[in-house]
């Protein structure tokens, strides 16, 4: 039996320097918990997987809105594992993330990895709509197959618009049934973990960080707007996270220095 | 109007638009040992065709169809996270623009040249060029999809001293996939800018950044 469910988060500035969460709605397997934030200026939400999902045929969605001036950080308690559906005709699952960040607002979207288990089929989309003074920190990691397992079919699309204009649009398709060459020397080169870290910050209008390599298969690239994207490939999830964590630390420091300048 | 000959002129590797100086990411792939023979080249080309090849072909098809070239140029930026590759795309766009305006002058090409004096993304310029030459979206998509694989194949002949017959055989075997990608690109263009594919290749983006920092290289990209 497949599931259709949407979880919703709405964060608003409470006028006293903190952020409240007037909407925190769990949906199906996506249970939301308000958790303790290490930074008092941020509200924090943790997505707790209440059951294994998504399974083939499931249609899951998360909507998170940070209204003007709100600051919210969303993470998850565990990796999301895409699994095959119950029957042979379960069909692909879908998982849609819709983010919106208002003027002067800040959203950190830092979920754990998405793991594509053997036999699963998942189409994932992430769309972020940003106001011109919004800040966004977004991490996406895909792991192709569990330990020692070959991958399922995974397609993703990440679309970020800022002030109504396109800022970043990236689409990937991996696994059996994906167009040919996905595992070859132009796309993944045999790597099993792939990730992106995006930082959009109006402070970068005054000077976006220079491009640099973060190892043999990772690069930090300034986009054609006040934003930086880190793209990394690694043999496994742990090595990938190490690269992205280090990049996040450096980028947050650089953007903070720019804002205080 | 018959346009087959115009398509041959535009798709000819000798069309003076500067493409021959670029390996499409093959040079860093050869250096990293990821392309060692004709089979590796075929894998590389297939991956490139289905990612940046499709994305670029759809941008070209959309420009040939008459969608707003400046909005397409912006869409191309959003689909090109590597500043090295954005630079290459604009440089190639500027070179193609010069050749195109001499070959098939049109008010639309002139307007884009004026709006983007440092160059628009090459696939957008190619789509407008095709339009000026009386060609259609599918023709433009075919041109760009073919360029996506012919550039690396030609480069690998030089980089690995690969037998040119073998490299050409790789391209010939890709013909059905090329037709399919061009068709998909032309179809996507009919659904507007937001529906255009954005297929990306992480390794091409990362290695383009590494390659652009090499002190000595045979190809510009």
Model description:
The complex is a heterodimer of chains A (261) and B (221). By secondary structure, chain A is mainly beta. Chain A has a domain at 21-202. In chain A, 9% of the residues lie in helices and 49% in strands. Chain A contains 1 helix and 18 strands. Chain A has one helix at 237-260; strands spanning 4-13, 19-25, 30-35, 43-49, 59-66, 71-76, 80-82, 93-101, 106-110, 114-116, 121-130, 135-144, 153-162, 165-174, 193-200, 212-213, 218-222, 227-234. In chain A, strands 3, 4, 6, 7, 9, 10, 12, 15, 16, 17 and 18 form an 11-stranded mixed beta sheet that branches. Chain A has a 7-stranded mixed beta sheet with strand order 2-1-5-8-11-13-14, with no helix packed on it. Chain A is globular, with a radius of gyration of 18 Å. Chain B is mostly helical and 221 residues long. Chain B has a single domain, classed as Orthogonal Bundle (Urease accessory protein UreF). In chain B, 69% of the residues lie in helices and 0% in strands. Chain B contains 11 helices and no strands. Chain B has helices at residues 4-11, 26-31, 38-65, 69-78, 83-103, 107-115, 122-132, 137-160, 164-173, 175-189, 202-212. Chain B is globular, with a radius of gyration of 16 Å. The interface between A and B is large, with 38 and 42 residues.
């Amino acid at each position: 039996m497949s599931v259709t469910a949407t979880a919703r988060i709405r964060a608003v500035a409470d006028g006293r320097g903190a952020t409240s969460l007037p909407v925190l709605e769990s949906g199906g397997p996506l249970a939301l918990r308000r958790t303790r934030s290490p930074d008092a200026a941020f509200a924090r939400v943790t997505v707790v997987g209440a059951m294994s999902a998504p399974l083939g045929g499931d249609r899951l969605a998360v909507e998170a809105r940070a209204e003007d001036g709100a600051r919210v950080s969303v993470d998850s308690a565990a990796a999301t594992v895409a699994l095959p559906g119950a029957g042979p005709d379960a069909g692909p699952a879908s998982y849609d993330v819709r983010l919106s960040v208002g003027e002067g607002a800040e959203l950190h979207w830092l979920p754990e990895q998405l793991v594509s288990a053997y036999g699963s089929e998942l189409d994932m989309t992430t769309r972020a709509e940003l106001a011109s003074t919004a800040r966004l920190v977004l991490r996406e990691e895909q792991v192709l197959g569990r330990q020692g397992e070959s991958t399922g079919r995974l397609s993703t699309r990440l679309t970020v618009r800022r002030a109504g204009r396109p800022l970043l649009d990236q689409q990937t398709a991996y696994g059996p049934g994906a167009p040919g060459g996905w595992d070859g020397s132009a796309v993944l080169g045999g790597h099993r973990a792939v990730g992106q870290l995006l930082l959009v910050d109006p402070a970068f209008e005054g000077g976006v960080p220079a491009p640099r390599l973060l190892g043999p298969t990772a690069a930090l690239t300034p986009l054609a707007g006040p934003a930086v994207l880190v793209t990394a490939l690694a043999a496994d999830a742990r090595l990938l996270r190490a690269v992205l964590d280090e990049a996040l630390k450096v980028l947050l420091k650089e953007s903070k220095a720019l804002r205080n300048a | 109007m018959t346009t087959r000959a115009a398509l041959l002129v535009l798709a000819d590797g000798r069309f003076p638009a500067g493409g021959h100086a670029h390996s499409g990411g093959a040079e860093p792939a050869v250096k990293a040992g990821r392309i060692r023979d004709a089979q590796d080249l075929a894998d590389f080309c297939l991956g490139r065709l289905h990612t940046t090849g499709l994305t670029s072909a759809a941008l070209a098809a959309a420009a040939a169809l008459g969608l707003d070239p400046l909005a397409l140029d912006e869409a191309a930026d959003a689909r090109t996270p590597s500043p090295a590759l954005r630079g290459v795309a604009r440089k190639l766009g500027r070179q193609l623009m010069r050749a195109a305006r001499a070959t098939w002058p049109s008010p639309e090409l002139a307007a884009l040249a004026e709006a983007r004096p440092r160059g628009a993304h090459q696939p957008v310029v190619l789509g407008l060029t095709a339009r000026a030459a009386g060609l259609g979206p599918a023709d433009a998509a075919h041109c760009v999809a073919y360029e996506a694989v012919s550039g690396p194949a030609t480069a690998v002949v030089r980089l690995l001293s690969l037998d040119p017959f073998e490299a050409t055989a790789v391209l010939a075997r890709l013909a059905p996939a090329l037709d399919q990608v061009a068709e998909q690109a032309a179809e996507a263009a009919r659904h507007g800018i937001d529906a255009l594919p954005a297929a990306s290749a992480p390794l091409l983006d990362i290695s383009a950044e590494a390659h652009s920092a090499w002190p000595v290289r045979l190809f510009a990209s």
